[in-house]
Amino acid sequence: xxxxxxxxxxxxxxxxxxxxxxxxxxxxxxxxxxxxxxxxxxxxxxxxxxxxxxxxxxxxxxxxxxxxxxxxxxxxxxxxxxxxxxxxxxxxxxxxxxxxxxxxxxxxxxxxxxxxxxxxxxxxxxxxxxxxxxxxxxxxxxxxxxxxxxxxxxxxxxxxxxxxxxxxxxxxxxxxxxxxxxxxxxxxxxxxxxxxxxxxxxxxxxxxxxxxxxxxxxxxxxxxxxxxxxxxxxxxxxxxxxxxxxxxxxxxxxxxxxxxxxxxxxxxxxxxxxxxxxxxxxxxxxxxxxxxxxxxxxxxxxxxxxxxxxxxxxxxxxx
Length: 319
Known about the structure:
By secondary structure, the protein is of the alpha/beta class. The protein has helices spanning 49-61, 88-96, 117-124, 166-175, 194-201, 214-226, 257-270, 287-296; strands at residues 3-6, 13-19, 37-45, 66-69, 76-82, 104-111, 129-131, 135-139, 150-154, 184-188, 206-211, 232-236, 248-254, 271-283, 299-307, 310-317. α4 packs parallel to α5 (194-201) and α7 (257-270) packs parallel to α8 (287-296).
């Protein structure tokens, strides 16, 4: 079994690679049955839920699109990637950038077994989420869901869109704080569409939801129908899709640091004077770089918050 040690930026990280035979007792979540996936099992030592969240974010940038975290002492994280998108060199580079020193990461992988992933995910991994005692995010499979001012029902296909991740839950919380009546809203990297759905429930006049993953676009469309909301347009694409879009009163961008910086100018151009930009998907340590970039394009930091080292920052365009 080959093992590699890397020391990026003074932080010692080790990881090993092992190809194993198919297991009969995999922990899995929903994957689209029409695609072939590889199932990776990562082991972190020492481990914590915060470290697992960080690893999920890094793996998401490397092409992994579904995750199962554990709350026990095993320190394992299961992640899935489409067979034809797996790049061993990219994965090694990604692991070498893990920002916490002294963490050992090992992993093995195998072809994901064909089964009813949706049923397994529903039964074992997706639990209802309550945000600020005002909004409940729950799946179609859940019974006895607590009453709340806003109930969002989803058919989850991605772990990062269910609201459990610190970035998504903070964005939901911020949406609950402002009056969106009559707003034109842009949701970049919409995932499962829950931010767009809550924005419409909160009174937005129109919402444009964009994602560069066709499965996210499909899932967002399905979830819009589940929640019986209208005036949400869903498109497949990235920031280049915004050429003739807007102007918007509010832009939601729960993506990652690099994409936010790369697309900040485009976001600013689509915003009305006085409009706000809600951002998340990056660490608190990255906020100064985001703020510096935003200021170049007339966006001033209004306030920021943190949860489990993940930052959520609000910017406003100058009048």
